[in-house]
Q: What sequence folds into this?
């Protein structure tokens, strides 16, 4: 089969590799679509010691089951690999499993390929009228769905009456804004440095007010009930603590390292909730698939589709900021 192989820093190649083989409890899925994640870009830049070349990345996938009792089923795949036996798994919080791993990280090859081996348990069937490109959005949108669910739980007023801000206009940040709007937020302020990404966010929903950080439209200090930091940098944490009001909530879902920008004194004096959000539960994932199938997050005009055989160019274009779309989906056909 063909696969997009990561060969080293900023080096990807569409080449022949061995077909995967399914073990006990596993099936072969013919990949139809797979999204490029920010974590894939992190590996592409050589920043992730877990992504050791040569390897196949990719975990935001949808396709058709080729083996086993469910052969022929159109599916998306929850890429979290967990033990299934610990307290976190048994209580419906598999994202907190101490043994949690991911498809697309060694030793489990990813989905930038024509075929992939996945545990049958991780399959989630999709409606017949749902496109594979839309289904491939299930993973990143589930991240946003889980974060919004956590944020709403900490609110002291209905989401429709809350002032909401999202920091970061990439796929996760934009998806978080769209999920919040679908759940009742009347308007979401979205901070993003890139003018192209601000335009993309504005076009995605008329309920999004995209602003340039540090500009005139940035939320005033102590004015926001619920802040989502989808970047996780020192500057965005500092901005979140500056704009959140007393008694408000900050949901931190960005994965950059560091702790700069956390104002512990303001957190204490203002009774501010600062909570992390990581991935999703299987229930979150399934609910996200259903909501995407229903079109609950708008026209998805922030997504671009390209052939997987041209994936190396897509990675390079994202790296050079030549892409207006918040998400690129690589398709095999």
A:
């Amino acid at each position: 089969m063909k696969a997009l192989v990561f060969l080293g820093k900023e080096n990807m190649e569409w080449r022949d590799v061995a077909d995967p083989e399914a073990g006990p409890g596993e099936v072969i899925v013919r990949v139809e679509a797979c999204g490029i994640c920010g974590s894939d870009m992190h590996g592409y830049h050589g920043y992730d010691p877990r992504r050791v070349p040569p390897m196949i990345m990719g975990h935001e996938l949808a396709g058709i089951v080729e083996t086993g009792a469910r052969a022929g089923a159109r599916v998306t795949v929850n890429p979290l690999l967990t033990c299934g036996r610990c307290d976190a798994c048994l209580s419906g919080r598999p994202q907190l499993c101490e043994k949690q791993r991911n498809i697309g990280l060694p030793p489990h090859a990813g989905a930038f390929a024509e075929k992939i081996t996945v545990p049958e348990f991780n399959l989630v069937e999709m409606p017949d009228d749902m496109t594979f490109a839309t289904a491939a959005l299930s993973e990143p949108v589930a991240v946003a769905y889980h974060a919004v669910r956590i944020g709403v739980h900490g609110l002291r007023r209905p989401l429709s009456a809350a002032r909401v801000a999202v920091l970061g206009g990439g796929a996760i940040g934009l998806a978080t804004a769209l999920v919040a709007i679908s759940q009742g937020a009347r308007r979401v302020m979205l901070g993003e440095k890139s003018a192209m990404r601000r335009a993309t966010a504005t076009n995605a929903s008329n309920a999004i007010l995209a602003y340039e950080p540090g500009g005139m439209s940035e939320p005033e200090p102590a004015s926001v009930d619920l802040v989502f930091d989808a970047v996780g940098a020192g500057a965005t944490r500092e901005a979140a603590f500056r704009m959140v009001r007393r008694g408000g909530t900050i949901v931190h879902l960005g994965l950059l390292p560091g702790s700069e920008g956390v104002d512990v004194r303001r957190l204490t004096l203002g009774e501010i909730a600062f909570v992390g959000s990581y991935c999703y539960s299987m229930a979150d994932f399934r609910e996200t698939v259903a909501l995407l199938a229903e079109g609950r997050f708008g026209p998805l005009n922030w997504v671009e589709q390209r052939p997987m055989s041209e994936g190396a160019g897509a990675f390079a274009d994202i790296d050079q900021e030549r892409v207006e779309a918040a998400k690129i989906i690589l398709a095999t056909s």
Notes: The longest strand covers residues 26-35. The mean pLDDT is 96. Residues 143 and 279 are 5 Å apart (CA to CA). The domain at 2-137+300-331 is CATH 3.90.180.10 (Quinone Oxidoreductase; Chain A, domain 1).
